[in-house]
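Open question from group meeting: does this chain pack into something compact, or does most of it stay loose? Before anyone orders reagents, we agreed to write out a predicted structure and look at it together. Recording both the input and the output here so the notebook holds the full record.
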Amino acid sequence: MFAKLPRSSDFNFSSSNGATSALQTSATTFTTTLASTDFTDPLQHDHWMQASALNDSTADVTAATFDRRPASFSEFTSNNALTLAADAAGDTLSTALNLGVISGSGTVRDFVGSSDPNDFYRFQITASSNLSLRLIGLAADADLYFIQDANSNGMVDRGEVLSYAIAPGSNPEAIDLTGLAAGNYFIQVTQYQGDTNYQLAITTTPSGAGGTLSTAANFGILTGQRSTNDFVTNANPQAFYRFQLNAISNLNLTLNGLSADADLYLIRDNNNNGAIDSNDVLAASVAPGTTPDSINVTGLAAGTYFVDVIRYSGNTTYNLTLTADAAGNTLNTARNIGSLYNTQRFNDFVGSADSADFYRFSLSNTSNFSLNLSGLSADADAYLIRDANGNGAIDLGEILAASITAGSSSETIVLNNLAAGSYIVLVNQFNGNTNYSLQLAATPVGGLQIVQGTLSADTFTYNANYRYSVFSGNGNLAFGSGRRDLLDLSTVLSSSVSFNLIGINGNGVLFDSGNGTQMFDGLLLSNGNQILFEGIDSIRFADRTFNLAIIPNDPLFSQQWSLTMMGVQSAWRLTTGSNNVLIGIEDSGLGFNSAGIHPDLRIPIVIDGNLADEFAEPTSHGTAVEGILSAISNNGIGLSGINWSSPVAQVDVISGREAGDRNLTQATQALIAQAARNGQRLVINLSLTATTIEPAFEQLIASHQTDVLFVIASGNDGSSSLAYPAYLANFYSNVIAVGASFGTVDSSGNAVVPGTRAPYSNYGYGLTLMGPTNVVATRAVASPSGVVFGYDPQFTGTSAAAPNVTGVASLVWSANPNLTATQVQQILSETAYDLGAPGYDFAYGNGFVNADTAVRRAIALGAGAV
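Structure tokens returned:
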């Protein structure tokens, strides 16, 4: 099932170009002739992230045969296209074909199809540039993505797709970016449908900054230090730059090299309207004359920001330097990375303006520790410190180890048998300015066993040879058939164990098993061995069995494999919902008959009387969605809703016979107002697609990234790009785009691996999480005699997956209402059960939603973990 809003052609895309100037020196370019036809400017969304396509009149170009591999892109000469050997392009970021430094124009040719769906290219630009990408000569549908691997982990993480083009069919694809900062970038050509040769044309030209927010030069994701040289004049009085922070950071902006007076401003476009409103200027520096300007802001939240250089008097060139420092500058302000056992990586900068970076971590157990500092362009050193007296200063004897290799060589520290406790790592400038990559790792001495379960029932057997054991159940879709995620301690008497079970007889143990520090249940055995666990349904001792999972008395619960596959039966131990959270549903209304709504649904909050489903379809879509989220639980009737306690408000946005039906903007405004009246956090479920693009709706998303989380179905087209509005997950960290996963069988009853993506489920960049589909739901069917209520054993589509994720999100926020919407999205993403390729991937996003682990992460953050 999937609800679709009405089609409209009212929204038009607009085109914008960056500012240019005669003061700019013209660079020599090398042009490769592609065909005897002119390119037309693509239609562009007014985001800097553009989904664009060439005019349909652009002629196709016949792709050439594949006969040789390039040495580098910079070897292109005028009118000389370069042809690649068949699949010379890499298939991943880490194997991307290196085109070298690009300055000018050139073309590569290759193929994507069923046997080779992805081609990746790596290249570098050494100065601020305008970039043009054209993908032409297509015989089938292929798409184009432009990527920055900001953390250098070889994967495409959230926010690292800077632009994409997804024109339908064999239409050409185009991306145009102005003012792209110097750095390393990637291009991906991906199959959408069918097999095709292609030509990829790449052109860079020197650029200045844009004259407006919408044409701002793009620094991309800022880690460490970036600089640029440009100018402001009477004809071009303002120069704008855009950058993104992916972690809370201290920010330094410096404007120098002036020959006349210019000023410096830091801006955040809070409502995303492309204009600078009164509350959008975060800081300013207006030093007189040619005195350098500087801005320093501490604790700046992750997000997108702008720098504006403004001419005050006279024309002047300038040097602008941006430095993002996510590490603290003293022992007391050290960046707290929490419990360290696995490998963690950080990118940052040290130099004249920021000579010392401090990181704090803790060890729960005696451990073997290692440090590697690499990616240096100048001399920096590394130190391991323990502030034994807690005075916030480095005293004699508190430096435990140091690495002071000369020059830009990497630094390494290895220290075995490091005692449990709190430690500090210092990265210190020795000479010059440098970005760096820091890798830290620790392994407990005495043996650490970490065992991850599957999405079905698993038995975890204790091994006394390990001093520390960590077991993760990860959900159990076989729970309804009586099988359990079982911790087998059948050689141990329960009387010999000290229990630390969250909310029962303890507060749990903080530990990071690789997806963020979370609160585990703990057992301390008589021999001193320690066991931590999550997602465990039962513990079997030699003398008894403890059952931990919550089992409601609703008769259909045993058929709700979807809930137990997400680990909801374990999360219910910790929370069943809270009045601090409002669940908003924008869908069809609810089915009504003479007795009211479905008897298994809680009475929702009615927004302006707009609640009844007009039954544009025979079955009430909204009735099914609300049942998944919040059917009355533990009442001996029907099925169990995910959230037992949080209030629900439903608004009809599917056009019908009632004049009160709202568009997305109106419905969202009404739900936000309802939550604000009661001081509640708001999770909005959107199991729909829309063909009317509403800029005002997008502005509501942009301006409520703290208090409103949007969970949106990815679409049921089987497409490699997300439907609107789910594709907004590409832009906003308070949006979750949800795909659909099967349990043990697909829609035809064929056996599949649990978690397999439903073939109709849209995927691609921006996909955040997977949720279960083909699930049990409440049903209301229109008939000649009136609305008939019952239960649907197979409610399908991403429409079913989205409310499952919404329900889990509402539990996470209930467990810790002090979280922001962005933090809830991050928690759900980092705690998901990985599916498909390791890490984030286009088919499964971050993986399958994991309710128990996510709630435990929220509780840990509430307890002060990081």
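Observations to bring back to the group:
The radius of gyration is 28 Å.
The chain is about 10% helix and 35% strand.
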